[in-house]
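ESCALATION

Customer reports they have been waiting on this structure for their group meeting. Please prioritize. Original submission:
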Amino acid sequence: MDVVETDTYNNNDATMTPLSAIVEAFEELAKISKAKKNGSEEIRLDIFCDACSLVSVLFGCLGLAFKFAELEYVSKVRDLKEASRTYDTLQVILDIDVENGMVKTHGSLSRNLRRVRLGLDLIRALFEQFLSTEDYSLKEAASTAYAQVCAPYHSWTIRTAVAAGMYALPTRDQLLLRLNETDQSADKKMRRYISAALPVIEYIDKLYLSRNINLDW
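Update from on-call: job pushed to the front of the queue and completed.
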């Protein structure tokens, strides 16, 4: 199978905000996700990790409520980045874990990829909720996003800790300030992220489903 390559985003622009960098990187991944070459579509693991590492700043901006997600997400991306020195694509790490019967094993690369995918989807859901309301508080938006994406896979202990942390979320204005965005600029970039992230998430899901691996874990 052929690997589709792309240039990573240009982070030399001093005016580029964290959200701008994330959007550009995921729009590049989305192009690969949609590309068809010789009947095959492959995303390079190193480029995927470079894009995902940019998302870490978003979890950091959300404070205590999403600290669990930040810690898990960052560690999983770091492990995948280390693996990219050995393995070229997302497909390869899944195939190796399938062959060794380790797909759902704690610490496996396939499990790490699944958790990173949930992190990307959590940000997508949060952005959708953010754009659907002008509430000063982010509590309802963040609670809804978490309930949709991550809660089904978390223990009661984690869900309880997240619920308690929701009261420590930044306000809408505080989040925009941390991201160095205005309402108008954030609106455009969040919509672009949602549009770019969806095909990447679907691409990852299909990797599992095409190998008869369910997604309820």
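Sent to customer with the following note: Residues 8 and 133 are 33 Å apart (CA to CA).
Escalation resolved.
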